[in-house]
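User: quick one, fold this
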Amino acid sequence: MMLVGLFGLLACAAPAEPSTILVYIHAQDATPPSAAPAAASPTAPPAAPTAALTATPAPPACALETLAPGLHISANGSYTETEDQAAGPMTCRIARDSCAFGLLIRNLDAAILFQDEEAPPHNDEDRRMHPAVLMPLSRLRDLVAAEWRGEARLVVSDAYDALLEHDLNQTDPARKYSLHFEGRSIDLLLSPYDPARMDRLCALAHCAGFDWVHHESTHCHASVRAMSLCAACSGER
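Assistant:
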């Protein structure tokens, strides 16, 4: 057997039972030997982990055409499940100076309009949201574009809320309760505003993959089930 490579010329008579010589050449174009028997192969070091980019999965087929004012629907199609049942209960109120606040995503998607109507430093809160909101919101953006072909744009009127402006019926701030307080709820409408299109927008929010959608007459309220960012900061699972 003759082997020509980095080690020079090696010539020898072929034995009756040929042996296998493994030569590992660490070069960019090197390829591993293909005929080596498994028993003779030395244990190779584990390969370094690699990251693969995958396309955003499409939402499942959705047959919901409209969602009437006052109705709500969960991801499994239930019209009776509460928001807590479908998206999970609120576990904390995220303060702006907390670890959890740093985990909120600031959405800069130019294809979505954000009202940003609060006074500084709260004027970015309509853009801040739990990372789990991003995928269904991006799907909804695309569904709105396909549905109205540029005649209407998706608007986020509220997302994370540090000012406790939700749960208006509760006058005691300590007892106010909303998934907006931990960035897992979002309020949606269209620009230009058109009440006749709200039924369809709420249905599209359900089709986009939000875990719970409520048609609140003037806007669509949508929520996601996800781990609390407060729990993530405290190391809980």
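User: anything notable?
Assistant: The radius of gyration is 28 Å.
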